[in-house]
């Protein structure tokens, strides 16, 4: 992922879609359109860059962010920077002298410090000042485009300032962007990295400046705006998932339990285990007719009810389950599976009064065929749930 | 005897400007309908020869790095391959100084006098052997043709009718357009065949 976080935007620029298409062609993935404000802030701050952009032929894969650059002049007062930051995706400041640079590195809450590298600064960049800014999450920006298009003095100043900046920051906390007003000023990401390598930034650092550090800026800026205190952001609000998805998940879990059933577990454990998992492992696979008959017979024997009719499962279950538990079981579902389960629940109820029907239904392994395996399965699922908890 | 090690830079010449049309697309009076990727990767003019390209590089190195840079570069600089049809070139340069040449290429914004077109030169691959550079050139040409085909779908722009490249729906290949391991800064073991073959 390559980032170019400075593409100047103006409302009358007809060349912008071409520039964006060219950046896409060069291999950039994320581009930030830059709106520059100098002087006094307007009374009503709103994002000047329309969303969506009014061009029809934009490259589909290119991600576009909105950035504002505020020029810090002498008569600057600190008010309303937060308001400005809220209106855009990324907030950059452009200091013009040492005092404002000090201010930007220290107290101002911005994302990018963007210096105009084509002019000559009458001061040195100090390591302490720059690291203070980098530690608080601000990044310094190297814009290469003016060095390519401008005259030789602009190029000389750019190289000089960039070298100074790289030296003073030890190559940390820099991002490289184009600031290209036309498509001709853009270069490929690796070309820009090579330029930075010529200026003294190692290739690895240059690559990070193009990708990792720039991503850092975008992500932290987004987090600052949307999250709670810059720490917690709700990415997924826990809406009800689609029913199809849930069913698949259940089936997968059921299959997993079935797969790792050990050979034999103490039969007495069964009741204790059945309480634990609350319906998590109850698969929806219908039991076989033979199994249903077997269960019905078991239920009949345990209740002592001499029911003759074995052919219909529901007919067997209903007379047996005379207690209040039965209604709970019915609540699980009105389909055939739930009806088949009832027989099992009834038996459990008689052996252990007061067990919750929900947990009892969980204990039924519809896929297994005989007693000991069932117990093992429910034990297994219980262990799983506790482990997860 | 110690062999001189080289780097081969594969470069594309891109034409981002609207006005520089070296070819006319048949049956299209207005240029607006041509997709951007076709516009950018259009063929170079016939006047652009390897000699002119070499002169651009030499001049660029001289302006950026002065006599020192020109002296360092001049002995090993060579244009190995240049194709105006795809605007692709492979140049050879000694390993120690390839960054100088690369920077000089990045600073090119305009082709010199007889052509006088704005252009951007992008280095897409730095390789220790010319073979790898060649393979990469072929791969990229394929990808760009496919992209153009996909972009021109629905419009009757004949982009690559004669190229023999099949249009693949949703080809994944152009996702890895990067040069993550494209810069070979260190010696690779399989670099022995370096000077063995000539491209094109």
From TrEMBL, chain A:
It is found in: Nucleus. Transmembrane segments: none annotated. Residues 242-389 are annotated as: Disordered. Residues 242-256, 342-352 have a biased composition (Basic and acidic residues). One of its GO terms (molecular function) is RNA binding. The keyword tRNA processing applies. Pfam families: RNase_P_p30. Keywords: tRNA processing. One of its GO terms (cellular component) is nucleolar ribonuclease P complex. Belongs to the eukaryotic/archaeal RNase P protein component 3 family. This is Uncharacterized protein. It comes from Oleoguttula mirabilis.
Automatic annotation (TrEMBL), chain B:
The keyword Nucleotidyltransferase does not apply. GO terms for biological process: maturation of 5.8S rRNA; tRNA 5'-leader removal. Its EC number is 3.1.26.5. The keyword tRNA processing applies. It is found in: Nucleus. Residues 170-182, 190-200 have a biased composition (Acidic residues). One of its GO terms (molecular function) is ribonuclease P RNA binding. It catalyses: Endonucleolytic cleavage of RNA, removing 5'-extranucleotides from tRNA precursor. It comes from the Eukaryota. Residues 170-200 are annotated as: Disordered. Keywords: Hydrolase, Nucleus, tRNA processing. It is an enzyme of class 3 (hydrolase). Its main location: nucleus. One of its GO terms (cellular component) is multimeric ribonuclease P complex. SUPFAM superfamilies: Rnp2-like. Component of ribonuclease P, a protein complex that generates mature tRNA molecules by cleaving their 5'-ends. Also a component of RNase MRP, which cleaves pre-rRNA sequences. PANTHER family: RIBONUCLEASE P PROTEIN SUBUNIT P14, RIBONUCLEASE P_MRP PROTEIN SUBUNIT POP5. Belongs to the eukaryotic/archaeal RNase P protein component 2 family. This is Ribonuclease P/MRP protein subunit POP5. It comes from Oleoguttula mirabilis. The lineage of its organism: Eukaryota, Fungi, Dikarya, Ascomycota, Pezizomycotina.
């Amino acid at each position: 992922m390559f980032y170019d976080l400075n593409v100047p935007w103006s409302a009358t620029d007809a060349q912008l879609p071409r520039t964006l298409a060219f950046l896409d062609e060069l291999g950039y993935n994320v581009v930030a359109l830059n709106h520059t404000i100098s002087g006094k802030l307007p009374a009503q701050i709103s994002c000047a860059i329309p969303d969506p952009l009014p061009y029809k032929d934009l490259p589909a894969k290119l991600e576009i962010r909105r950035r504002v650059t505020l020029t810090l002049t002498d008569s600057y007062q600190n008010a309303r920077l937060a308001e400005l930051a809220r209106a855009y995706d990324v907030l950059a400041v452009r200091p013009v002298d040492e005092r404002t640079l000090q201010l930007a590195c220290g107290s101002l809450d911005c994302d990018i410090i963007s210096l105009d590298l084509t002019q000559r600064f009458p001061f040195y960049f100090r390591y302490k000042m720059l690291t203070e800014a980098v530690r608080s999450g601000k990044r310094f920006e190297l814009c290469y485009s003016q060095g390519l298009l401008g005259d030789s003095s602009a190029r000389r100043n750019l190289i000089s300032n960039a070298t100074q900046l790289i030296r003073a920051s030890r190559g940390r906390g820099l991002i490289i962007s184009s600031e290209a007003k036309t498509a001709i000023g853009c270069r490929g990401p690796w070309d820009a990295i090579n330029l930075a390598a010529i200026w003294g930034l190692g290739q690895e650092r240059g690559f990070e400046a193009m990708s990792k550090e720039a991503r850092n800026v975008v992500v932290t800026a987004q987090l600052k705006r949307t999250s709670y205190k810059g720490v917690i952001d709700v990415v997924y609000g826990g809406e009800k998932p689609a029913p199809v998805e849930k069913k698949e998940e259940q089936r997968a879990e059921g299959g997993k339990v079935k797969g790792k059933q050990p050979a034999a577990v103490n039969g007495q454990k069964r009741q204790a285990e059945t309480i634990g998992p609350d319906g998590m492992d109850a698969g929806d696979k219908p039991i076989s007719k033979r199994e249903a008959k077997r269960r019905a017979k078991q239920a009949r024997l345990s209740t002592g009810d001499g029911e003759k009719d074995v052919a219909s499962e529901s007919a067997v279950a209903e007379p047996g389950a005379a207690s209040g538990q039965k209604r709970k079981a019915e609540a699980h579902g009105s389909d055939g599976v739930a009806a088949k389960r009832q027989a099992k629940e009834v038996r459990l109820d008689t052996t252990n009064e007061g067990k919750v029907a929900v947990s009892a239904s969980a204990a039924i392994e519809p896929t297994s065929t005989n007693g000991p395996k069932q117990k093992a399965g429910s034990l297994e699922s219980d262990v799983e749930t506790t482990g997860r908890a | 005897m110690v062999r001189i090690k080289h780097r081969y830079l594969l470069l594309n010449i891109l034409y981002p400007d609207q006005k520089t049309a070296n070819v006319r697309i048949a049956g299209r009076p207005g240029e607006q309908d041509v997709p951007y990727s076709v516009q950018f990767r259009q063929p170079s003019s016939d006047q652009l020869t390897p000699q002119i390209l070499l002169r651009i590089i030499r001049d660029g190195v001289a302006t950026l790095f002065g006599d020192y840079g020109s002296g360092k570069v001049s002995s090993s600089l060579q244009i190995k391959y240049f194709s105006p049809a795809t605007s692709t070139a492979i140049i050879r340069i000694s390993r120690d100084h390839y960054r100088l040449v690369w920077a000089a290429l990045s600073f090119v914004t305009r082709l010199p006098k007889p052509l006088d077109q704005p252009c951007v030169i992008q280095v897409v691959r730095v390789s220790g052997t010319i073979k790898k550079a060649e393979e990469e050139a072929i791969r990229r040409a394929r990808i760009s043709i496919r992209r153009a085909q996909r972009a021109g779908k629905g419009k009757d722009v004949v982009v690559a009718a004669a190229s023999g490249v099949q249009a693949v729906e949703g080809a994944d290949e152009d996702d890895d357009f990067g040069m993550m391991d494209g810069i070979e800064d260190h010696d690779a073991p399989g670099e022995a065949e370096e000077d063995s073959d000539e491209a094109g």
